[in-house]
Amino acid sequence: MELNADFSKRVVVHSNALEWQASPMKGVDRRMLDRIGGEVARATTIVRYAPGSKFSAHTHTGGEEFIVLDGVFQDEHGDFPAGTYVRNPPTTQHTPGSEPGCTIFVKLWQFDMNDRNQFRKNMADELAAPVDGVATAILHEDSRETVTYRHLDAGASLALDAEGGLELLVIGGEITENGNELHTGSWLRLPDGGSLHAVAGANGAKLWMKTGHLVYAQPPAV
């Protein structure tokens, strides 16, 4: 399967408008944003766990990173409430699920295969003091990519070059970008060489963002 697999193109998806699709596991549904591959895929997805649902134990051969958007994600390593950012690099294992139910934004098979840096963070705890109405938290940074979380005050602007590509998820509030209104659940991907010019709406905005990584995009090694 290929979905939004041309990384030279700008893509906007308003994920809240997509229908939920069933996964192979009962009670776990998903909204696909981009994908190369079948059930083993380089994929960016919104995943919803119904209360009491879970996946069987598995190894993330190509790594996994995710944000908990609502509810509480759980595995044998602990409970992960809304606002948690998690990186599970290649070779890590777990049995994911959620007794209360949750929704996560997850990216699979997008790691450096030698990365072994496993961690979790409360994103809001990492925010630095705001500059010109924008507070930034650097969640992860290496030679391939930078992952950030940002709070924009109402009317604050954010301009960035998309060297190596850029993608963002609006976690809360709204922004206007290139004439488009992006609201909670909207996902934007810009190709290498593009640029971001965003202005927060009346409610401000909360953004998860990754830059630099798209030049490394490739199908999963299976």
TrEMBL record:
Residues forming coiled coils: none
Residues of the ChrR-like cupin domain: 9-111
Matches recorded under InterPro entries: ChrR-like_cupin_dom (IPR025979), RmlC-like_jellyroll (IPR014710), RmlC_Cupin_sf (IPR011051)
The protein, known as: ChrR Cupin-like domain protein
